[in-house]
Amino acid sequence: MEIIRQMQERKDLTERERNIRDYLMEHPEAVISMTAKQLGEVSYSSTAAVSRFCRKIGCQDYGEFRLRFLSELQSTEGGQETTTEHFVIQQQENAMTIMNKIADIDTLAVEKTKRLLTIDQLARVGKMVHEAKYIDFYAFDMNIHLARYGCSQFFHCDKVANTYVEDNIQRMMALQNNENHLSIMISHTGNNKKLVELVRDLHRAKAKTILITSQGKSRMKAYVDEVLLTPRTLTECGSIRMEGLWTVAFSAATKYLLDVMFAMEFSAGYDENIKLSKQYYEIGAKNLCDTEKS
């Protein structure tokens, strides 16, 4: 972060140059389309002041500064201590910091989730998925889109996957579950009242069940075969909060777990799944061609 560090640490900037620096730090995305003249105007300085500022920072001209500044902003802020504010949506945030913040949340959510997994647990989960012909997802609210994502993945390794969201259908499927089914419950808290009732029915029916949740001591835990944990916070052993962004982290972590399960099953039946994927591709290409002709 050489350019940004110099901007923050240099003590010999004039008042106009400090105005330029402050504007750039508060509105970094503006540099994408702003000329030196425009930067001078919005920072109450001048084009000449912008040129002098760029040279003090170690660049030949504004063009070089602009490229290096944007390159640093787009890179992950490696080596810097992660603060609570980094995972909280602030008022009137600029587009560049939001872009980096979301990328960091996705990356950390996956990394923390990976650390919560064990090889033994993955082997047990992989066996459950492999032995099942039907994958039944149960979820509510925002988790429905995660369940449907899981269905799409398992469909490509020859599983009959469904997402049940209507109350009556959920209860009926829970009561009729059999040994060819694997139920995957997705609940951030693990305490959703309706899902607790469903998982009790599944438990009584001796159905195989997996729970994806961020709470290790949830009410649903006692009734499932396996609990796949996502981080409660992005530091799991720390206290970084995620006001407004916890859904982003839970979504990234859950999709990672679903992808891991899918990839293990795809690998287990690799040859057949490759053939199946080719068939899907050929059907899709034919449908696209027919659509373009019509």
Looking at CATH, the homologous superfamily of the largest domain is Glucose-6-phosphate isomerase like protein, domain 1
Helix content: 55-70%
Q: Please state the overall shape, judged from the principal axes of the Cα atoms.
A: elongated
Q: How many extended strands?
A: 5
What's the mean pLDDT score? 85
Structural class: alpha/beta
CATH topology of the largest domain: Rossmann fold
What does this structure look like?
This protein is an alpha/beta fold. The chain folds into two domains: 73 residues, Arc Repressor Mutant, subunit A, CATH 1.10.10; 178 residues, Rossmann fold, CATH 3.40.50.10490. Helices cover 56% and strands 9% of the residues. A five-stranded parallel beta sheet has the order 2-1-3-4-5, sandwiched between helices. Helix 10 links the parallel strand 3 and strand 4. Helix 9 packs parallel to helix 10. The radius of gyration is 26 Å and the shape is elongated. The termini are far apart.
Notable traits:
Rossmann fold; Arc Repressor Mutant, subunit A; 9% strand; 2 domains; alpha/beta; single chain; 294 residues
Write the layout of secondary structure elements.
Layout: H1 2-9, H2 15-26, H3 36-42, H4 47-56, H5 62-74, H6 95-116, H7 119-131, E1 134-138, H8 144-155, E2 160-164, H9 167-176, E3 181-186, H10 193-204, E4 208-213, E5 226-229, H11 246-268, H12 270-293
Parallel strand pairs: 1-2, 1-3, 3-4, 4-5
Helix pairs in contact: 2-4, 3-4, 6-11, 7-11, 8-11, 9-10, 11-12
